[in-house]
Structures are given as C-alpha cells and as structure tokens.
C-alpha cells in the first residue's frame, strides 16, 4: 500500500481555504504496524481517508489492493495486487477502516462485529479477547446479543471504539486502517489492545498490515515497523524507528505533541532484533493488566453463546419462565418493535382530534384543516423536545422523522378532506335512498338488504386494510433510519466494500414497504369487484321496480330514478373508501398521539419556593449523597456513591471503561434522574429546581462535541450575550488562533478589569493557523464536518471558556488532541479562566489530571478511591497507582503529582 502524489485536495473548507495533503510520498510495509502521528489538524485522518477514496485526487497516484467490479459481478475474486485507484470499474478490496468517530449500526453487538461476514465461533471469541470486550459483554444483560441503539448510544466512547475495532479485526481484510482507537480507553486497556490486537503476535493478525493514527506514540513506538509524522498536511518525517532515531530532527518533532520524558522508553530502547519484544517490566504489566475479575473474564474459556444461554436460563428461572421455552424475549432488546394499535380506532383518538380542532365548535369551524394540524404539531414538538434521553436511546430517528413528515402531512392535507368526503357521501346516499323510496316504497326492502351486504363487506374490508395501513406506516421508518445510518457511515461502508450489502438492505426494506402497498392495492381490487356487483344489483332491482310501476310514472321520472339508483354504486364506494382513508388519517393521529405521551423530563422552570438566586451558584461546592442512578429501572449504574468537592477544586475522574464516569456527568445535569440520594450544588438540591435554571449554570464539554451549522461566533455565543473580546480570548486560549502581541496606539477593550492581563497599549493580531479560524464569521458546517474531531473538541472547550460557569464538566474533552495541545489546554484550565470554577474532568490520559487537586476513582459504579494524586500513588495496592504503573509514564506521573516534575503545571 503506497501513495505517491504531489497534492491530494479534499473539500474541507476552513475560512474559505481547502485543506489539502501536499507532497505525500509514503509506502507502508506489508505485515507490520505503522504509526501516523502529528499535532491536531495536521492531516492524519485525511491521510487514511485518501487511502479509501474519500478525498479528491488532483495529482499523483494512490496504490492499493483493488478488484475489478466487473469481475466481482461475475463472482470471480481474482485480485490484482497493485492497481491505480482512479481507474474506472475498480473497487477497493482487502481494506478494513476504523473511523476516528466510531460508526456503529443500530443492531446487536454481534451483528456490528460480523458486519455481514459469516459467524466463526473460534475467530469471534479470539476477536473479543483481543479487543478486550469480554469484560464489557459480561456486564450487559444479553451479552453480545444486546442492541446498542443508533450510533451506539448505549455504549461508552471506549466501548464504541473497541466494537468498531473488533469489526475490522474480525473481517478477513489484510489491511487495517485504524484512526485513533486508543483515545477513549484507559491505559491498561490500551496496552492490552496494542499487545493482543494491533501487533501481529497472534494468528488473528499474522501477516496483516496495520496503519494506526495515534497520539499515544510513546506506547506504540517500541513495536512499530514504520513511523510517519505529519504537520499541516505534509509528511515531515518518515521511516523505521531505527532510521528516525538517527535523524537529528526527530526528538524535537516528537516533543511537539508528546512530552520528551515520555519518549525515553523509545529513545533508549533497542530497535534491532528485539524491537518488538516487550521488556520484563512490560511483561509484568501485561500479567497484572486488569483486576482479577477482568482477568478471569478475559481468560474465560466459555464462548459468548454458552455464557449468554446460561444467563438467559437463569433469568428465566427467576421470572418463573420455562427454561426450555423460547428465551428470545429475555434478550437485551433496546429498540422494540414500533408501536402499532390493533382493532378499530379508539373513540379517544377521534375525541382528541376533534378537541384540537376546537371541541364542540368543530362542526361549525370544519372548514378551518389548519387549527388541528397546528395544535397537533405543537403538542408533538413539545413532547419530543422535552422527552427523556432514554426515549432517544431506544427510538430510531427514522420513527421520529416519520411522525413529523408523513403522519403530519396526512393530518395537514387529507384528514379534513377525507372527513368532508365521507360526510358528503353519506348525505348523497341518504338523499338517493329518500328520493327512490318516496316514489317506489318497495325499494326500501331491497335497499335495506343490500345495505346489510354493503356493511358486511365494508367491515370485512376495513379489518384488513386498517392493519395493512398501520403496517405500511411502520414500514417507512426503517427505510428512513437506514438512510440516515448510511449517510453517517458512508466512509466506513465504502472502505469495507459493503456498498452492495447496504444497497441490498435498502432494497429489502423498500420491498417490505412496497409489498404492503401491493397488498393494499389488492384489497382495493377485492373491494371494487364486490361493490361493483352490489351496485349493479341495485341498478337491476331498481329497473325491475320501475318496469313494475310504468303505469304510475312517465319516462322522465323513470329515467330520473334510474340515474339516482345507478349513482348508488359510486356513492357507496366513495363512502367506504373515504372511511378507509379516515382510518388511515386517524392512524396518523394515533401515531402522533403516541409520541405526545412519551416520558418527559422534569419541568424547565423552578417552582417559586425552590427558585435559586439569580447569582446561583456563587461558589461551585458539590455534595453527592448516596446517589443511585440507572438507565433501566432496577439496573443501577451508580451504586450509592457519596463525596464532596469544595469551591474551585479540580477533580479528575478515572476508572476503566464502563465504570460510570459519564453516567456521573449526566447525573450532575439531570439527563439521568437520581433513583435515590441527591446532589447538592452550593447547598441547593438540584432535583428541586427547574432544568433550565440548572443547565444554564453548568457547562459540559462532551466526548462527542456537538457543533451547529453557522459561524464560529454563533457556536460559541448563540445568544450574543458576550463581547467579541471574550470570544476571541476563548479561541486564543484554546489554541484555535495564535496571537502575537504588538505595540499599537489603539487599545483593546478590557475583557474583565480584574482578570485581563493584556495592557491597553497592546492589541491582538490574529495569525492564521492550519485548520483554525481567522474570523468570527468563519463557517462551521453541519456537525462540524469541516473540522477534525480534535478541533471540534477545542471549539467545545472554547464555548465553556466564554460562559465561565461555576461548575464545568469535561468528559474526555481533549481525547482527540495531541499531547502538546492537551498540555497547553491544561495550563489554560489551571489559569485564571477557571480559577473560580469547580471542574470535573473525566480522562483516560492520566497525565491530564495528575496534578489536579484530587482524583475520584470509580469502579463498577462505586467510589473506589478519592484523594490527592500524590496520596493515591502511595497506596501500593491502590487502583489509581496500578493504572499509573501500567500507563508507561509512571516516573513522570509520580514526579508531577509531587510537584517535582520538570513539566509540573502550576495554577
């Protein structure tokens, strides 16, 4: 796999300039581990995207294993080893891609890992072990058969990355392109993945080429075959570790994004024959890599099939279910079948619809189809916006979109029209009945008999068509959901060569929807044939009655009656179809009403007796008392945890993946309500106040940053509450712009008279950097797609700097930035910007929080340790010390915690 080019341009606009890879000339060795390193925004992820064809090739060549798609169509898998990617009719082959933001399907964990490949039990078990997933699967109720929701919402960031990694490893692809899979996992999990998965020590990875983008260079370098270092879209250094060690510029280049003391293991190591052999200490770390429980889980010889079956049988016994019966109902189904009513539309639905139209005045204001749709839309929007996070975890986005699109469209455009048609049809047929019966009384007997036949046919028809229309309405949601899933994961799908798989899946879901349409047309034909027969029967009987009474009527009256009798057919057909359409429209109302009754979050506004002061919180003191939090009833994630934090303290929150760190941050913002216990902020129980009052005064910087389409100013200050100087200052302190102080006769408005360190005789000259901003009007595309993940995290951090809340929560907020940028950001955090703020920082990088005031160690949802980093390191059997020892940075961490480190960061 190689790349030889002058420029690869990519449509990634920042400030009007297209980001591009320039003068790339690299060839990765076959069968080994290659590392791609560099600072945030240097083009590492873009390099991998170029390999899978997601960038525009303007000059040069990208050489990859490819296959002629026409040969594939003929089921002949003869590969050509090296072919130009740009040739027509060629498709990438033998490549598995793991994106920096893990893309997962709305399916079970096993289905995500298999990704269309056949199930091989031995290989599957080996992959679970290599990716350190067994301990996580043991926690889940249904193991690897648990559904994970859209975008893997039920998994932590580290779990999502490892599932995506497992998908690539399980595949039979020879080349693995892995983008920063170690950023969201703790140190010992990261080392396990490196030793057991990324290196070709096992048969699972034997002979496979692995290209890894990572900031964890010190951990990976001793085992790498090839290293590429990038800066501003270009390769500044490349070669084997031994070759790079001989280059004068290598240590300085490495220090730019990785502290120099963390490179000592590499620079002093033997990069010859023993290059890929761990030292004795590393081997000891591997032996003690996990807790005893985790080791037992990793080494458990039971397969996931056996383990899941045993667990489900145990649950069946507890619930009094026959263990020999079908246990599928006990599995970890997250997304249940879409709601669908049975039988006739309930009176409550009709009552609700007429009430939103205006209640008793509905018949008077029938001509107004707008009041109803407006009120229904308002209720639906309010209900969905205020729904609990669990609702969005368990509800595919396609179902929500379906309610707001096709269902509301029917209510808007056809509901009242169909109702009017039904009423007019009933009026017309009654008029016909009265007219004909008044002239020919005997027609009453025949009409009643035929009417009974019509009713029987109509009831039989409606029972079928009602359910078919409900099924058709439900079948549209999976099509919408799959489309959104494909758009989000298009790079991964194309890199795996899974386009045909998804095209087939889209066709299958569309066919299900179309089959229901065909079934509806068939029922329409069935109805039409029978109604036509009855209509002709009415006309025939009417004609006989007219002939029998020719002595009492003239030709004009006979023709008049016969024309009305023949129209009886069209009116009855119109009535039944209009009523059927009303059933469909009421089904839309029914579906919308379902979503107006979903579980809601607490009230936005505080009750008068619990309204906090306008200046609340003034300090940021936090007390957590016996807190229990759970996503699913009776399945707690946090188990009666208690601790207190003083004003201005910087608290690091650590623990292995799944320990409950992110759950704690969600509980502080009441995205998860406490089942018991309470959280006090400045002496106020947060469960007593409105969500608006709480969340406006707390800032969270999430692991997956959310950016909005618009300008950088809008993203940092959407309500224009702060002056431009504060916004610029936040960008500067998060290193999204670089400032140079120059003397000028003009002055800069003071950001804060008591805090501003810039004199009135200085001004800020903003210097453009690669991939960052030079104007507050710089465009942010949807979801921040024109920025790297690290840059998006920095924008989220800048947003927190602008708000300057008294309580700030950082959830792996710098996981995707390089170590040097992270180090500078931590200096900013310890500076005056956050001096008056209490900070919770969830981090897997222990160097990030090693000189915080205290460290909270969570284990299995409980507080395992809580003390200063220095005191925790003195505990020989402590969890935190064990994590530090396994990080590969133990000496640095000890020195930093005691204030003796050369890189000690001072507030």
UniProtKB/TrEMBL annotation:
Residues 273-282 have a biased composition (Basic and acidic residues). Residues 259-272 have a biased composition (Low complexity). PROSITE patterns: ABC_TM1F, ABC_TRANSPORTER_1, ABC_TRANSPORTER_2. SMART domains: AAA (SM00382). Its main location: membrane. SUPFAM superfamilies: ABC transporter transmembrane region (SSF90123), P-loop containing nucleoside triphosphate hydrolases (SSF52540). Residues 3-257, 622-885 form the ABC transporter domain. Keywords: ATP-binding, Membrane, Nucleotide-binding, Repeat, Transmembrane, Transmembrane helix, Transport. Residues 257-289 are annotated as: Disordered. It comes from the Eukaryota. It is found in: Membrane. Residues 353-581 form the ABC transmembrane type-1 domain. Pfam families: ABC_membrane (PF00664), ABC_tran (PF00005). CDD domains: ABC_6TM_VMR1_D2_like, ABCC_MRP_domain1, ABCC_MRP_domain2. The chain crosses the membrane at residues 349-372, 419-436, 442-462, 531-550, 556-576. PANTHER family: ABC TRANSPORTER ATP-BINDING PROTEIN_PERMEASE VMR1-RELATED (PTHR24223:SF353), ATP-BINDING CASSETTE SUB-FAMILY C (PTHR24223). This is P-loop containing nucleoside triphosphate hydrolase protein.
């Amino acid at each position: 796999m190689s790349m030889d080019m002058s420029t690869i341009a990519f449509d990634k606009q920042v400030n009007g300039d297209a980001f591009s890879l320039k003068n790339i000339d690299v060839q990765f060795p076959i069968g080994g581990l290659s590392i791609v390193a560099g600072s945030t925004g240097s083009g590492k992820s873009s390099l991998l995207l170029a390999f899978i064809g997601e960038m525009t090739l303007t000059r040069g060549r990208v050489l990859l294993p490819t296959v002629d798609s026409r040969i594939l169509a003929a089921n002949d898998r003869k590969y050509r080893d090296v072919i130009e990617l740009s040739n027509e009719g060629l498709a990438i082959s033998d490549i598995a891609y793991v994106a920096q933001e893990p893309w997962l399907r709305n399916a079970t964990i096993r289905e995500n890992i298999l990704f269309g490949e056949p199930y091989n039990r031995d290989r599957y078990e080996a992959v679970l072990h290599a990716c350190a997933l067994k301990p996580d699967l043991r926690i889940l109720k249904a193991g690897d058969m648990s559904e994970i929701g859209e975008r893997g919402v039920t998994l932590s960031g580290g779990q999502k990355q490892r599932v995506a990694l497992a998908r690539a490893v399980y595949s039979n692809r020879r080349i693995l392109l892995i983008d920063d899979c170690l950023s969201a996992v703790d140190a010992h999990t990261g080392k396990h993945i490196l030793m057991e998965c990324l290196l070709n020590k096992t048969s699972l990875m034997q002979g496979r080429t692995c290209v890894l983008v990572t900031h964890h260079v010190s951990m990976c370098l001793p085992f790498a075959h090839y290293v590429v270092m990038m800066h501003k879209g270009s390769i500044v250094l490349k070669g084997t570790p031994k070759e790079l060690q001989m280059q004068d510029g290598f240590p300085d280049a490495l220090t730019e994004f990785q502290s120099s003391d963390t490179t000592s293991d590499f620079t002093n190591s033997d990069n010859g024959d023993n290059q890929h052999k761990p030292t004795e200490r590393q081997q000891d770390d591997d032996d003690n890599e996990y807790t005893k429980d985790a080791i037992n889980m990793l080494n458990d010889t039971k397969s996931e099939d056996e383990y899941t079956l045993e667990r489900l049988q145990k649950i069946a016994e507890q619930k009094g279910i026959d263990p020999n019966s079908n246990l599928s109902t006990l599995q970890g189904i997250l997304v249940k079948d879409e709601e669908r009513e049975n039988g006739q539309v309930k009176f409550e639905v009709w009552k609700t619809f007429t009430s939103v139209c205006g209640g008793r005045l509905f018949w008077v204001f029938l001509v107004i189809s707008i009041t109803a749709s407006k009120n229904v839309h308002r209720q639906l929007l309010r209900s969905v916006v205020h729904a609990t996070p669990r609702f969005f975890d368990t509800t595919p986005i396609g179902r929500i979109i379906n309610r707001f699109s096709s269902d509301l469209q029917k209510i808007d455009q056809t509901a009242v029209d169909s109702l009017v048609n039904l009423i007019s049809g009933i009026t017309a047929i009654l008029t016909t009945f009265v007219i004909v019966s008044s002239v020919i009384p005997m027609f009453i007997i025949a009409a009643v008999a035929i009417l009974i036949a019509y009713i029987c046919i109509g009831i039989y028809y409606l029972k079928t068509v009602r359910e078919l229309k409900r099924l058709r309405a439900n079948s549209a949601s999976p099509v919408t959901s799959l489309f959104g899933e494909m758009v989000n994961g298009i790079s991964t799908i194309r890199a795996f060569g899974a386009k045909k798989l998804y095209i087939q899946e889209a066709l299958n879901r569309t066919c299900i929807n179309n089959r229901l349409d065909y079934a509806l047309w068939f029922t329409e034909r069935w109805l039409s044939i029978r109604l036509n027969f009855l209509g002709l029967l009415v006309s025939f009987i009417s004609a006989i009655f007219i002939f029998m009474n020719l002595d009492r009527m003239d030709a004009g009256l006979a023709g008049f009656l016969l024309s009305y009798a023949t129209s009886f057919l069209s009116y009855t057909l119109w009535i039944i179809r209009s009523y059927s359409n009303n059933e469909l429209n009421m089904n839309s109302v029914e579906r919308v009403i379902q979503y107006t009754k979903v579980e809601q979050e607490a009230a936005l506004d505080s009750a008068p007796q619990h309204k906090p002061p306008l200046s609340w919180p003034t300090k940021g003191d936090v007390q957590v008392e016996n807190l229990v939090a759970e996503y699913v009833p009776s399945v707690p994630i946090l188990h009666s945890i208690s601790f207190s934090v003083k004003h201005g303290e910087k608290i690091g929150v650590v623990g292995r993946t799944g320990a409950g760190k992110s759950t704690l941050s969600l509980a502080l913002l009441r995205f998860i309500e406490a089942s018991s216990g309470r959280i006090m902020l400045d002496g106020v129980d947060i469960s007593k106040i409105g969500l608006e009052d709480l969340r406006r005064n707390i800032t969270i910087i999430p692991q997956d940053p959310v950016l909005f389409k618009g300008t950088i100013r809008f993203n940092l200050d959407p309500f224009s509450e702060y002056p431009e100087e504060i916004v610029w200052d936040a960008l500067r302190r998060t290193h999204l712009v670089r400032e140079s102080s120059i003397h000028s006769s003009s002055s800069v408005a003071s950001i804060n008279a008591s805090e501003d360190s810039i004199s009135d005789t200085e001004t800020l000259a903003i210097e453009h950097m690669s991939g960052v901003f030079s104007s507050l009007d710089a465009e942010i595309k949807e979801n921040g797609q024109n920025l790297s993940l690290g840059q998006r995290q920095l924008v989220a951090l800048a947003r927190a700097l602008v708000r300057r809340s008294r309580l700030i929560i950082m959830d792996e907020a710098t996981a995707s930035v390089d170590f040097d940028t992270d180090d500078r950001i931590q200096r900013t955090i310890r500076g005056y910007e956050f001096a008056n703020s209490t900070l919770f920082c969830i981090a897997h990088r222990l160097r990030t929080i090693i000189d915080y005031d205290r460290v909270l160690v969570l284990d299995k949802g409980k507080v395992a340790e809580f003390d200063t980093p220095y005191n925790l390191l003195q505990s020989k059997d402590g969890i935190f010390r064990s994590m530090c020892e396994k990080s590969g940075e133990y000496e640095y961490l000890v020195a930093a915690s005691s204030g003796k480190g050369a890189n000690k960061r001072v507030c």
